[in-house]
Amino acid sequence: MHHLGVVHRSVDRADPAAVEALSRFGVATVHEAMGRLGLMRPYIRPVYEGAKLCGTAVTVLLQPGDNWMLHVAAEQVREGDVVVAGCTTESEDGFFGELLATSLRARGARGLVIDGGCRDVDDLRRMDFPVFSRAVNAKGTVKATLGSVNVPVVVANALVNPGDVIVADADGVVVVPAARAAEVAEASARREAAEEGKRERFRAGELGLDMYGMRGPLAELGLTYVD
């Protein structure tokens, strides 16, 4: 059990080559390749169309209505990191906006995933600073209560450890444990190659019923066709 008010400075980040490899794949592919694990709940959405990111997690545990720890976390960000923020209880306040985005970008951050609210959406779109959040909310926050930085956090039902790989796009957010990054990237590549073969067959008009050998099992269950 970790305590509030702790900042861990040393993080075992996933191998940069593996992060780069994972960045070429979409969230759905990575999730399937990992054995259908790691997805955040679908209420975490990009705050503007076209937002996507891939990077290593700097984790933050926030208190509701308080964004102090996001400022503390900024100091721990390195090039290629994604700030991933959970909250001690549900909160949709606007923890994050254009000023913090400017600060994080200067540190080399690839974006933010937050189980909370975000504001200044037009500015974030203009900056192309990707944010995935549970809400868009103009309501501001205070700086009064300690949370923690670089501790394990649960964000939208997904466990995130510092240094894990975060991949996010229009389909959602997936967390790849740092130790599995290279293996999941390879599995994602194999999956995409197999899908390309299927895509060609579908394009040619072949049916999934035949490609996947579904007719027999459907008949066994009693599916009947009536003219």
UniProtKB/TrEMBL annotation:
Subunit record text? Homotrimer.
Signal peptide range equals: none
- What does the function comment of this entry state? Catalyzes the aldol cleavage of 4-hydroxy-4-methyl-2-oxoglutarate (HMG) into 2 molecules of pyruvate. Also contains a secondary oxaloacetate (OAA) decarboxylase activity due to the common pyruvate enolate transition state formed following C-C bond cleavage in the retro-aldol and decarboxylation reactions.
Q: Does the keyword Membrane apply?
A: no
Tell me its family: Belongs to the class II aldolase/RraA-like family.
**CDD domains given for it?**
RraA_family
The first-level EC class reads lyase
Write down the chemical reaction(s) this protein catalyses. oxaloacetate + H(+) = pyruvate + CO2; 4-hydroxy-4-methyl-2-oxoglutarate = 2 pyruvate
For this protein, the record's InterPro entries field holds: LigK_PcmE, RraA/RraA-like, RraA/RraA-like_sf
Gene giving rise to this polypeptide: ligK
EC number from the UniProt entry: 4.1.1.112, 4.1.3.17
This protein is called what?
Putative 4-hydroxy-4-methyl-2-oxoglutarate aldolase
Q: Which coenzyme or cofactor does it need? A: a divalent metal cation
One Pfam family of this chain: RraA-like
Is Oxidoreductase given among the entry's keywords?
Answer: no
Q: Name one GO molecular function term.
A: oxaloacetate decarboxylase activity
